[in-house]
Each structure stands twice: as C-alpha cells, then as structure tokens.
Amino acid sequence: MSSKSADIPNSAPLLRAMTDSTKAGQLPDGLTAQDLKQMYEGMVLIRAYDERQKKLQRSGRIGFCVTSTGEEATQVGIGHALQDQDWIFGYYRQYGMMLYKGAPITELADHLFGNRDDYAKGRQMPAHYTNRRLNFVSSSSVIGTHLIHAAGAAMAAKYKKDNAVITTFIGDGGTSANDFHSCMTFAGVYKPPLVIYIVNNQYAISQPVSKQCGAETLHLKGVGYGVPAVRVDGNDVIAVYNASREAFAKARAGEGPTLIELFTYRVGPHSSSDDPTRYRGNESDQWLSEDKDPIARTRNYLKSLGLWDEAYEAKIWKDAQNQVNEGTSGSEKKPEPDWNSLFEDVYAELPPALARQRDELIEQESEFPRQQEGEFPL
Amino acid sequence: MAQMTLLQAINDALKTEMRRDNRVVVFGEDVGVNEGVFRATEGLTKEFGEERAFSTPLTETGIVGAAIGMAVYGLKPVPEIQFADYIYPAFDQVVSELAKFRYRSGGEYSCPVVIRTPYGGGIRGGLYHSQSPEAYFTHTPGLKVVIPSTPEDAKGLLASAIRGEDPVIFLEPKKIYRSVKGEVPEGEFTVPIGPARVVQEGSDLSIFCYGAMVEPCRLAAEKALEKEGIRCEIIDLRTLYPVDEEAILASVRKTGRALIVYEAPKTSGYGAEIAALIAERAVEYLEAPIKRIGGFDTPFPYTLEKIYVPDAIRIFLGIKDVMAFE
Question: Between A119, A148, A185, which is nearest B108 by CB?
Fold first, then answer.
C-alpha cells in the first residue's frame, strides 16, 4: 500500500488532449469556446453539489452521501458526448451526468432526503438515483449487477434499430465482479451499441488497484472478450469527450462496443461512512494539484485560450452554490413519502395478500396514530 | 382443439405470443439451432430468425441480467434457464435486480421478464437436474411464481405471464413434459395468473398440490375413495405467488382437513406457507392437524429418486393419517 498504486504504468500510455495533441491556446477539434465553458461550469456545479452533500451529511441532515470530487471530468466529458436518446446504466458515483444533462438540483436532492418527491419514493439509501426522463437507470447497491443490464438494453436497442448508445460504468473494483465478465462476454459476442467505462479511481473502498487485479492495466480486460479498448486520462475532460465521441460514433454505425478505462483519482472517501486515511494516509492530498485536478487543468486551459478571468470564476462558483443551496433547502422541507406508498410498485397491480397487509396497517394506523418514532401510543 | 403434450403447449404459447407481439424475444443456452435440450423452443429460430430466438453464451447471470436490460429498454424477454438447478448463479440477478427494479425506481422502470425453467425430479437427473427451488422465489417480493400441471394451463399461463408487466418465474414440471397430454385451444389463449384450479371436488379432505404432484395426488385420492370411501378435494394451485388464498380457505372450510403435497425438501418448503395460511385464517374449521408431504431434507438423490419424490402410496397413507385424527 503506497502511492505506487496510483502511478501510471509506462507501458500503457494514456490518451490525452489538453497536454499532448492540443496545443495551448488553440481550440480542440469539434469543440467551441462555448462548449469548453459549459464543460467547465458543469464540473464546477458537480463540485459545489458535492461540497453541499458533505455539509448536509456532517450536520446530520442526510444519513449518507457519496461524492465524486476529482472525477468530474469523467462525467462531464461523457455527458457532453451523449445524445438525448442515449442511456446511462451507472453506479452511485455517476450523478454528475444527470446534473450535466440538465436535471434540476432539486430532483437529486429530493432523493438525498428520500422525501415525497424522490423518484425512488424514499426506498433506496442516498446515491441510488433514477431518472426516467434522462434515461438514467435505477441502480442496485450490489457491485456490477447493472453492467449486464446495459448489455441487454444495448441488444434491445440494436434489435429495435434505434439510434441509441447505451453507456455503463464500473469502478476498478467492480471489474472483479461476476457480472463484469457476463457483460463483456455478451458485448463481445453480440456487438451491441454499448460503451463500457471503467472509472479507475485507484481504490475500491480500501483496496488499491494493484491488489484488485493482476493485469498491468484494466483496459487489457477488453482483449480477451474481443472488445476494443482504450485507456484515457480521466482528468482530461477533452480527452474523455474525444474518446466518448469516437466510441459513440462507432456504436451508432453498428461497429459494436468499446471499453474505455478512465484513469482518475478518488480524492474523497468511498462514501461518508469511510475514512481513507486508514488505508492510504495522506496520499490524496496531491490529487487536487494543478496537474491532476480536472477543474484546475481545465481552468488553466481556458486561461490559455483567453476564456477565463477572476470575475468569471467568481460568478460561476456563486451561481453553482446558489443553485445548490436553493435546490437542497427546498428538498429538506418536503415531507416523507405517504406511508401508503410502501405497498406501491412491488407489482403492476396490488396482489390480494399484499392488499390485506396494507389494509391491516391502515386499520392499525387509524386506531393508534403514530406520534413520533419510539413513542408507544397505548 | 388439439391434443398436445405439456411441452408442445409451451412451444405453442411461445410461437403464438411471438407472432402476436414482436417485442417478445426468446433466448438461453442451446435454445436456438438446437431448439432447447427438451425441444421447448422447437421451430422458433426457423420462424422468427436469430434476432428473436437465439442461443447465448454459457452464463446464467448473463442470460437473466441481459433479459432485465432488454425489458427495461422495452422488450418482452422470455429467457430459458436450462435446468432450474442452474438458476443459482443468476440468483442475485433474480432476487436483487429483477424482483426489485420496479420498486427501487419508484415505478419509473418496470421489468417484465418471464424466466422459463424446467424443475423437479422424475427424469433421473440426480443432484443438479432435479431441484424444486420455488420457495426461494415466493419469498421474494416483486416476483410471480407460476407452475402449470396441464397442457392447457401451460399454454394459457405462459401467455398471461408474457403479456403481463411483472417478472414471472415460470417453473415447468419436466417429469410430465411428455407424459401428460390434453386438449389445448388453438391460437391466442390465456389463463389468468392467480386463480387455482379445482381438479376434483370432495367433502372429506382437501389436498393442495401443484406441478408433477397433481397426478399422484389424483391416483391416491382415487384409491382412498375406492378402499376407504374418503372423498378428497384436489386443488392445483397453479400460481404460488400470488396464491389463490380464497380457494384454499373455501376448500378447508368445506372439508375441515388439509394435506399439502410438494416435491421440495419439507422444511421451509412452500407447503409451510399454505399450512400457515390455513392456521392463520381457518383454524376454527380444522378437524385434524394439517399435514405436509414433501421431499426429504436431503439433497436430491439419483438412484433413490422414486423414494424421495412423494408418490401415490405416500400420499394415500397421508390421506389416511389425516382422516384418522378424531
């Protein structure tokens, strides 16, 4: 266990745009100044949302949170390449794409509080977002199960001859899970319009990549399944966008799946229940340095293009923070879901046995109304 | 109406539903060109092409998981698990994903997958080709569990399962795939999921059973009438979740005695659920203790399967036992 786990093996170079193929002071192919600013502002909004989540959790107003500090470029670079008809099968750290695709903060915050307006009706712990309008699919807490769902959805999209690309995401640890194998097998055999992202953020809770997998890099896992794979600097938002755009174009042209390893850093803990100093000391301090932090790197790039100044920086942060504060404060005040909703959505129609269980609860509640938790009303 | 085996009726249901709705797709290990190890998918690839009826790589997790993704995206997948015993590698996908998709997304996404799988003993399949896993699935909210015992029901229940909006575990009693024949309506035909079927009426004792156990129950009841003058009522449950509680209670209220017969290991088997239901809601009508006859609490055996699976003799003795209580 040392910072070596986060070193980049020399034998497998990372695709980069902001430092290699794009000269400073020059717009990259296919992106306008407006695109770049939008991507930068998208990353700032995610970080502001994460700061707010942390505060809400520390002050005990929400029970749990997951942040993606340091990984903003992975979400914004992909989000910028996605089209409306595309789908996202993510895990708990991909909410930044919902934000980037235009979900109001309130929709995400309603889920954090598990309130009446939460799409999941308060059934999942925070960070298990769902959003039908954005084709953002509900996820499990079991690692990797959604990967094969994404392969199935991509097979369905191919069968229906839709022009949709299905994206799915897994961390470095999740590539050890059974369902990763099934997903890659189906991807290789059926060649559906699927893009599988490995968000290699160096740690699966406490386990470094070197103890997770014997291969030198994770993108090598594409080879055995016949799935073309690339390895990208996940903190270079333009490189992430470029790799995604290319993979999506291939998928839409019927040329099958791509595996993309995004090399990035999980600056914060795995979740609010985790203390990373137990297993990586202060290793993460260097991960928000100017050469690693995706926001700092984009800022420097914008500067080189003359698209950035202090006033702009101050304004977008203020806007993001206002948006986040307003969105979350509204959610906090909403009541919890109606207890009747407990029985909804188990089946399309309520089965008789479940209806009877509900009716018994209705009778009990009307006879002995609940005052507050722990109070015995009799 | 045509005479069909249970297996032919299942094949007929698949063909009929695939003709009716092009969202229906069928896949699993060897179901394509080989048409299934039991031939349940005979002619499907030929008629509907490999796009809609195809063989998959050997991964049950993959089969069920991909079906979930297809259903979420808008298709009506009917995956096959070659033997119910092989569903355990996909168990997590079934209970953690398939069953929970609608609930965990607050109804934003639904997951209408029908998993067909042959189950139960009677074909000398040994430990890994004979299990009856129904109780695992009836214990999982979000799933419907259906088991036909006649060709007519096999066709009608499978069609209803495919047309429904919920995930269904469709367990096919493989012992009677070819041995049971019957009239099956041609063309589009459904039997609703939920209601039980009264196999025969009787006034002295209620027998609750399903799948391949219906026939030995019928034989045992015939002997009980012939030798002891006992008139048994036989109820084929057909759907284990949601189960037809009212049919069960009405029968017990009439006869006052209950015998439950199933092939799975007795302890924590589905019979316990029926016994508990009767105890909770009709105990005052009982004139004798409820009796369960199940498989034994051992893994399923190969050579001795005839002893393991309840047969007409054990059921006959069970009937006498319940009737003997004063």
Answer: A119
Residue type, A134: L
Nearest chain B residue to A118 by CA distance is: B106
Closest residue in A to B94 (Cα–Cα):
A145
A89 in B contact zone (CB under 8 Å): yes
A355 touches B: beta carbon within 8 Å: no
pTM for the predicted model, two decimal places: 0.94
The CA angle A157-A161-A162, to the nearest 5 degrees, is 60
Taking the alpha carbons at both ends of chain A, their separation in whole angstroms is 57
Name A171's bridge partners: A199
Residues in chain B: 326
The number of residues in chain A equals 378
Q: Which residues pair with A261 in a beta bridge?
A: A198, A231
C-alpha dist (Å) from residue B30 to A241, A268, B36, B83, B134? 40, 47, 5, 12, 24
Q: What is the ipTM of this complex?
A: 0.93
Q: Does B22 reach chain A within 8 Å, measured CB to CB?
A: no
Q: Centre a 10 Å sphere on the Cβ of residue A62 and count the other Cβ atoms it contains.
A: 23
Cα(B155)–Cα(B150) distance, rounded to whole angstroms? 9
Residue type, B99: A
Nearest to A53 by CA among A64, A43, A45: A64
Active-site pick, A219, A266, A280, A297: A266
pLDDT of residue B73: 98
For residue A356, the chain B residue with the least C-alpha distance is B245
Q: Determine the residue type at B175.
A: K
Distance separating the N- and C-terminal Cα atoms of chain B? 47
Q: Which long-range contacts (CB under 8 A, 24 or more apart) does B266-274 make?
A: B266/B292, B266/B293, B266/B294, B266/B295, B266/B296, B266/B297, B267/B297, B268/B135, B269/B132, B269/B135, B269/B294, B269/B295, B270/B134, B270/B135, B270/B138, B270/B240, B271/B208, B273/B135, B273/B138, B273/B243, B274/B208, B274/B237, B274/B243, B274/B248
- Residue B304 tokens read as 């001795």
Q: Please list the pLDDT of chain B residue by residue as tens digits (326 residues).
A: 899 999 999 999 999 999 999 999 999 999 999 999 999 999 999 999 999 999 999 999 999 999 999 999 999 999 999 999 999 999 999 999 999 999 999 999 999 999 999 999 999 999 999 999 999 999 999 999 999 999 999 999 999 999 999 999 999 999 999 999 999 999 999 999 999 999 999 999 999 999 999 999 999 999 999 999 999 999 999 999 999 999 999 999 999 999 999 999 999 999 999 999 999 999 999 999 999 999 999 999 999 999 999 999 999 999 999 999 98
Query: Which of B70, B96, B141 is facing A142, going by the closest CB pair?
Result: B96
- CA dihedral (B173, B177, B180, B181) in degrees, to 10, reads 130
The pair phi, psi for residue B317, each rounded to 5°, is -65, -35
pLDDT in tens, A7-57: 555 567 899 998 754 566 788 888 999 999 999 999 999 999 999 999 999
Evaluate whether A93 touches A68 at the Cβ level (below 8 Å): yes
A266 is catalytic: yes
Instruction: Quick: pLDDT tens for B34-66.
Output: 999 999 999 999 999 999 999 999 999 999 999
- Three-state DSSP class for residue B119: strand
Burial of B123 (0-12, 13-18, 19+ CB in 10 A): middle
Residue closest to A312 by CA, chosen among A44, A22, A23, A26: A44
Asked if A243 and A234 touch (Cβ cutoff 8 Å), the reply is no
Query: Rounded to whole angstroms, how far apart are CA atoms A47 and A58?
Result: 17
Residue A210 in contact with partner chain B when CB distance is under 8 A: no
Distance CA B191, CA B195 (A): 9
Distance between CA A264 and CA A294 in Å, rounded? Answer: 9
Name the helix (H) or strand (E) containing A167. Answer: strand A166-171
